[in-house]
Each structure stands twice: as structure tokens, then as C-alpha cells.
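Schema walk-through. Below, the input block comes first and the output block second. Nothing else is stored per chain. Lengths vary across the set, and this one has 87 residues.
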Amino acid sequence: MKSMIYKNPVISVVVINIITFIMCMYGINERAYAVTMLIIVVGIVNRRIIDNGENIDKQKKTTMFISFFLILIIQFAYAMYKINSTH
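--- output ---
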């Protein structure tokens, strides 16, 4: 499993980020805001994949960082929308 993650780092990071995005969006909809703490763990996992991945150039790193920060921004905006829409 580790070798597959490190051999295809961009695909691995994007898939992990998409799964986390779906889980966090569900958590926000169900008002389980503690699920959003999962982003910290995903950030650590993403960093380990970036550090240990094979054949990672600057463009691949940028793609991985953009993927992570994009889900972070969207989740934060959606959480703020859900919180403010209830008042």
C-alpha cells in the first residue's frame, strides 16, 4: 500500500483530499463540526507523501498543494455559510 501511494503521489493526494472533502461536507451538513479536525491529519499525510514520493517535480508539488488548500477554503466557506444561515 505504501509503495503504491509513493509511486503515484499526485493521484494519491488528490484522492485522499476528495474523500476527506466528502466526509467533511457530510459532517458540516450534520452539524458535526469536529469532523473538520480531520483536515489536520490529512495535511500531515499530504506532507509525508510530498516528502517521500517518487519523481515529484515543482509542478506536481504545486498541484498537490492547490488540491489541499482548495478543499480547505471551500470547506471553511461552506461551514461559515451553514453557521450563518441558521441565525
